[in-house]
Amino acid sequence: MPETPAPTLSFHGGKFSSALPLLFFIGWAIYICVGGTPDEKGLILGAVIGIVLGMFLCRDKWELYAKEVMNGMANPIAAVTIIAWFWAGMFAQVLRAGGLVDGLVWLGGASNATGGLFVGATFLLAAVFSSAVGTGYGTTVAFCTLMFPAGLIMGADPVWLFAAILSGAAFGDNLAPVSDTTVVSATTQETDIPGVVRSRFKYAIVAAIPALVLLTSLGGGGDVDRSRAAGLLAESASPAGLALLAPFALVIFLALSGHHILVTLTWGILVSTAIGIPLGLLEPADVIYFDLEQKLVGGALVDGIAGYLAMSILILLIIAGSHIMRLGGAMDSLIASLVSVIKSSVARAEAVIWGIVFSLNVFITINTAAEITAAPVVSRLGKRFKLHPYRRANFLDAVTSALGYIFPWGGGVLIGYQTIRNLESQYDFVTAVSPTDVWPFVLHGWFLAGVMLIAALTGFGRTYEADDGSETKTPPG
Predict the structure, then answer these.
(1) In angstroms, how far is CA 156 from the centroid of its own chain?
(2) How far is the C-alpha of 180 from the C-alpha of 368, rounded, in Å?
(3) Could you tell me how far CA 323 lies from the centroid of its own chain?
(4) Which residues does residue 471 pair with via DSSP β-bridges, in sequence order?
């Protein structure tokens, strides 16, 4: 049977008025983020106001508009994204509660690396941790708390050390199967997470290798106090947490073997708990507890879900706004305008996609929100040129992950800066590195964004979607 044509909506001021919900949200998000108040609840309010404004411009019955808002929220893409976020959040919280970061910090201290070698080791360990737990922000907080003061005593330059932590966070945010940005990039481009991760490994490594070399070569110059560093690490680091690398490796293996993300993460949670409790890394209450006096349920599993509740509401609202924009005709007009500039050049199409994602991430400092906003345009434009969903997802995620840890007003940079500032009262040798000082040196972020721009212009890694949905390097006829 032929598909039933999608209903359309008409708006006062023409079809471009149907873009008002999203345009208002983008303007609102830029205003509050650049103004220094990047808050997920504030972003949700901006999306709500945008949808209400669109209703006032709708020429059809408001009941129809409201119905289509609900239809947009019911999009399976949003549902899949939210469920994947919940499972990923639970797995990440179990690993964090079990002390994986403490184990990696111990490993860094046990290496006896000093100066630039310590900076390079910090980048590698932060990359491993962020790839395991899928949260760049969590990685930044953990490594600034533990590795930053230790690194200063081991002769690391503070600016390069902070840059190494941010670079490692960006690496894992981009590559981790359980990362929020990975989940969004795959689900919004209607493809599988394991395939996306396999396809983007080459871009991440091309950016990471020169970043590692330069961070190691240029990151030294400070004084070394080994005994003080050993004492500091002894207070906060333990090799026991390294046992949780086993469930991380299992998740990577299952994900890259093609298993569904929910199956993969369920096994990761179960194995992490099965290893952590007998080894004393976890108490049952660390995983889940019931507080009858406070009348609440808590623990890593609850925290993992709660961490994504606000973002889950936001993706529903943004996808609803995109749905209204499509029904009103603004989305098709936007794509047609872009195509008139791009013409038949796939390289220009990919460069435009890169530019759209770059521009939104410059100003919307919660990188997942910027990614969700860009996703519908990336999907429609990429499909127009038959770009494979893996390719579209890689542009969406790599640029988003890179820029989230570069600019001084970015969420990752600010949370790291605040963490280090809090350490100033604890350690007399710690001085916070200004966000305006560190941003040029977040090398993996800059290199990753650059690699994707070069990939757009040269065709490196470009693949298309064949008629049967498979991946091919042959351009469509």
Answers:
(1) 28
(2) 7
(3) 23
(4) 465
**Helices vs strands, H then E, count in the chain:** 23, 4
Average pLDDT by consecutive 10-residue portion of the chain (477 residues)?
A: 56 90 89 76 92 94 94 86 87 88 83 88 93 85 87 91 96 90 91 91 96 95 73 76 91 85 91 95 93 88 89 89 89 86 91 92 80 90 94 95 87 86 85 90 96 96 90 84
Tokens 């490993």, residue? Answer: 107
- Residue in 300, 278, 456 with CA at minimum distance from that of residue 382: 456
Quick one: which of 114, 130, 100, 119 has its CA closest to 433? 119
Q: Which long-range contacts (CB under 8 A, 24 or more apart) does 263-270 make?
A: 264/177, 265/84, 265/87, 265/88, 265/90, 265/91, 265/178, 266/87, 268/91, 268/178, 269/87, 269/90, 269/91, 269/94, 269/301
Q: At 83, which amino acid appears? A: I
Q: How far apart are CA 180 and CA 271, in angstroms?
A: 21
Residue 297: CB atoms within 10 Å: 11
Q: What is the dihedral of CA 144, 149, 155, 161, to 10 degrees?
A: 10
DSSP 306-350: HTTHHHHHHHHHHHHHHHHHHHTTHHHHHHHHHHHHHTT-HHHHH
- Whether 403 contacts 364, CB under 8 Å: no
Q: Give the global pTM.
A: 0.84
Q: What are the sequence ranges of the domains in the chain?
A: 11-74+308-328
